[in-house]
């Protein structure tokens, strides 16, 4: 960085923008920020320079320089309104977030800014940076630290009645509890977010996020029809904003269709006008799963899981539901295969279904315990023995009903005799 400063004027900004390479532009912007002038025009030019400088540093992937820029700008923040300070700080943190592989740097940067805002008593900015820090901690799977941070922040924000921030925090809390598999608390936090959102105008992106989280929670409870409607609302919101989350909303819509055994609708949704915009590996993965489900083919299902591992197994939401779908499909196939037999070798079933013998044996024993069919495993002979469905003996229910009726008759006679005696 050069020691000689440049005056904070539009000409200096023009000179920086016309520089031959980004490094030269960055150097000129730093020199503009060193200008000692604090007139309103100079401050406005410096704000513009900070925005341009942070954009250039982001494009050059200089995350550490963005971090040091925030420290360097602290004296400047004392000269401008707090609202503008908040905008600049959040803008620089957003710029760091756009540089790949900077999660740890973002966490340490947010922690530094929280300490600074506490010292400067900038409550508005601190609350937003803390909310951002909690989201970063959740992404890093540091759930307990994120939860501790959020619990204190929620109380403080509720007391101040900052509805917009409250929606963000409640939504984040819902995601955090969902990650910890605490569904009741995740639902309660989401309800709180919806209540706060109903009292104010919520930006479409935020409303889409609420709908997406609602769909995820309903899908977790196996209410796939309601989940589908929420995912559709989220998809419409994100699609209108050209938000990259639109493809995930569409993917989860297709998942819901598959889970309610309407795999035939998947191809129609993908080939619709809205679906064609997002054709790619995410939708191809769901189409492969839908084809496997429609054909009730475990082999095609496993091929889809193998070919689209990143889109299916590495997405925790899809993976959880596809695991239960795989189990259901396996059970249906096994029931269909053993139906003609009264005694059959387990190895023969394994050959028919094209799965390892130990895997088939384990699943059959689980199905017998779950009373999916009546039978037993003869492990000595390596056979499955299937019993006929036991016919329910109607004599016991009939006897109980007769005794019950006799009891009613006796009670009625007792009441009548009591009236006569009276």
UniProtKB/TrEMBL annotation:
* Pfam families referenced in this protein's UniProt entry, alphabetically: PCI, RPN6_C_helix, RPN6_N
Domain of life per record: Eukaryota
Question: Listed GO cellular component terms?
Answer: proteasome complex
InterPro entries noted in UniProt: 26S_Proteasome/COP9_Components, PCI_dom, Rpn6_C_helix, Rpn6_N, TPR-like_helical_dom_sf, WH_DNA-bd_sf
Instruction: Please indicate if the UniProt record lists Cell inner membrane as a keyword.
Output: no
Alphabetized UniProt keyword annotations? Proteasome
Q: Which GO biological-process labels does this protein carry?
A: protein catabolic process
Annotated transmembrane regions: none
Which ranges carry the PCI domain? 223-391
Family per record = Belongs to the proteasome subunit S9 family.
Q: Write down the PANTHER family for this protein, in alphabetical order.
A: 26S PROTEASOME NON-ATPASE REGULATORY SUBUNIT 11/COP9 SIGNALOSOME COMPLEX SUBUNIT 2
Q: What is this protein called?
A: PCI domain-containing protein
Recorded source organism is Salix dunnii
């Amino acid at each position: 960085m050069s020691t000689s400063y440049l005056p904070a004027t539009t000409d200096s900004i023009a000179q920086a923008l016309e520089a031959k390479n980004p490094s030269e532009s960055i150097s000129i912007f730093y020199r503009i920020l060193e200008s000692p002038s604090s007139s309103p025009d100079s401050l406005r030019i410096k704000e513009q320079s900070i925005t341009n400088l942070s954009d250039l540093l982001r494009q050059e992937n200089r995350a550490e320089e963005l971090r040091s820029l925030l420290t360097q700008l602290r004296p400047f923040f004392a000269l401008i309104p707090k609202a503008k300070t908040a905008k600049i700080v959040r803008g620089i943190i957003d710029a760091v977030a756009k540089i790949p592989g900077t999660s740890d740097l973002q966490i340490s940067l947010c922690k530094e800014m929280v300490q600074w805002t506490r010292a400067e008593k900038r409550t508005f900015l601190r609350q937003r940076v803390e909310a951002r820090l909690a989201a970063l901690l959740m992404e890093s799977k540091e759930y307990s630290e994120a939860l501790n941070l959020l619990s204190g922040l929620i109380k403080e924000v509720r007391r101040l009645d900052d509805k917009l921030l409250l929606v963000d925090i409640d939504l984040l809390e819902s995601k955090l509890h969902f990650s910890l598999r605490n569904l009741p608390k995740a639902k309660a936090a989401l309800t709180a977010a919806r209540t706060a959102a109903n009292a104010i105008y919520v930006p479409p992106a935020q409303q889409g996020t609420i709908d997406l989280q609602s769909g995820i929670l309903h899908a977790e409870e196996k209410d796939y029809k309601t989940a589908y409607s929420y995912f559709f609302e989220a998809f419409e919101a994100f699609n209108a904003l050209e938000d990259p989350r639109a493809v995930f909303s569409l993917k989860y819509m297709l998942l819901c269709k598959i889970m309610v055994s309407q795999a035939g609708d998947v191809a129609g949704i993908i080939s619709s006008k809205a679906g064609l915009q997002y054709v790619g590996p995410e939708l191809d993965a769901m189409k492969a799963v839908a084809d496997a489900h429609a054909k009730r083919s475990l082999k095609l299902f496993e091929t889809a899981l193998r070919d689209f591992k990143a889109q299916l197994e590495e997405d925790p939401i899809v993976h959880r539901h596809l695991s239960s779908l795989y189990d259901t499909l396996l059970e249906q196939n096994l029931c269909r295969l053993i139906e003609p037999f009264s005694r059959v070798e387990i190895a023969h079933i394994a050959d028919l279904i094209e799965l390892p013998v130990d895997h088939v044996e384990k699943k059959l024993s689980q199905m017998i315990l779950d009373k999916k069919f009546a039978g037993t495993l003869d492990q000595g002979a390596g056979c499955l023995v299937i019993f006929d469905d036991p016919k329910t003996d109607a004599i016991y229910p009939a006897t109980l009903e007769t005794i019950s009726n006799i009891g009613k008759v006796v009670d009625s006679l007792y009441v009548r005799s009591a009236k006569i005696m009276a």
